[in-house]
């Protein structure tokens, strides 16, 4: 590394204005497509495009072609059975939140799963009832069909009991939610999920957990509390609970406490424990009856559509946002792609299909998806098997669950809120590291608690829309001419939750995906070590030579995918691996055609927590494939924030920051000198310097633009 005292450069050039600079150095204009060109391309049909469209609309075609019966089927069976047992109890419990009969919560774990099996792009999420959605549906149900008083004036209610009226409202609302989601998917507006940051979703789901907890207290305590809706409904509910606290049913309270203790002590086996506990304690022999059959599908009520459209849209957004966030986590972990627009289509079709059969609105539950993934699930075959478990329960042994008291189901709901309620511990961290994010979290949570989930979310999104108007949402990376082996990107806007994914995708314009390269290299190193250990590779004067010419097949096993994302371990290798040369035994790793990446942060004035995490992950991906990353022109405020948030570690150091592009280029020139004199001359002759006088400093502030500039 150069000593600080030797890092000097001087500049002699004319003073340029923008006009004179453009006159002397012609810009390179890229051809931009007209609206008509996009329109023609969109409606042009070819055989290849028809094939891609079919695969896109039916993602099952893609993963079925690579399905390994030998390696994956057993894992999917174990995962499907485990997830199915959890789905049964959660479906029964979450139906209480929607104020409908428990059986219709089970339908949400069957009908939507069948449709998502064919249309969904995520292989690991478990589709079914989600407590937040169930609570939002319940608020609409109790508004139209209250516990006390007359129901809404709806023609379809004539001749129906109160329970049947509530089922009609729930099913119609689910159908309408599906229509909204399907419409947004067909219109390709999956990008809307970008406007829901991790902080906002965390605050909203925490508020929803508080609402759910309060709503279940009446079942745990065995009290009769009327349903309230609208702003401050949670206050009215608590007031009604405390005025009746002396009438608590001790049997229900003790039962709930026992169930919650059992689940908390042994969380991994709680489906089996609850089945055993409920069957031994609550089975009533005289309550056995004929097997339950599916009810006939129903047509949704148009009057319910008119009365619930305002609530249906936020339900559609929240259901999709939560499911997409969970799906994205597992897609990154297991190295496959998900499509936001196709997910909207999948959930839309699932809810339309489920709504026709009186199902609850479906999304995904975090705990249930964690069970499906952690027990070894590889594809949605696990989800299909879980649906079959639910079907067996509905048609075969449902009578065993009929005597379950609501206090048991309420206890199951409360225990499953643990993860969402514990999100409150992030508030002190956000206050210390990023106060704007902390304000968003607290504001979202309080608004959703006191104004209700639907109105609170609407208020938050309205304020967020106004705030986002102050920022540049779409990140436009500008790429300049670079010397060989160097890529330079200029980021002309703040980086935050709404554009961090776009930022990371644009960095792949360097010509390769660093994360895939890293995984390929780690697999290759593991294979080389294994072959050396078996004697299939020997060390010669020319390097490693294979003793046999048989190619080594790559394994599809994803069990160690997290290990493949770590820095490559070259220990125990007798020779240094040259990734630009041919590797032995037909091992192939895509080449990396650059050695340095420069990010111009001179226009980046803001960086939130979500973007910080994404930026750190992106930089590490490049560093781990031996690409040096340099950040230039960074605001001191951002550097200080990076320090406070523990951004720097053994891989990412403060030495990667330079004042200007020219500083970074001089350092790169010393680290990676040109191979010939002509290349060195070309390198420095291509650098043009533009003076900028919009800052007050001693001396001249210079910003480097490598020409020809792109527009």
UniProtKB/TrEMBL annotation:
Localization: Membrane
Where do the TM regions start and end?
A: 73-97, 103-120, 127-145, 165-182, 189-213, 219-238, 250-270, 304-327, 381-401, 407-431, 438-458
**InterPro entries per UniProt:** S04_transporter_CS, SLC26A/SulP_dom, SLC26A/SulP_fam, STAS_dom, STAS_dom_sf
Q: Its topology with respect to the membrane?
A: Multi-pass membrane protein
Q: Write out the GO MF terms.
A: secondary active sulfate transmembrane transporter activity
Q: Name one GO cellular component term.
A: membrane
Pfam families on file: STAS, Sulfate_transp
- UniProt keyword Membrane, yes or no: yes
Could you identify this protein by its name?
Solute carrier family 26 member 3, tandem duplicate 2
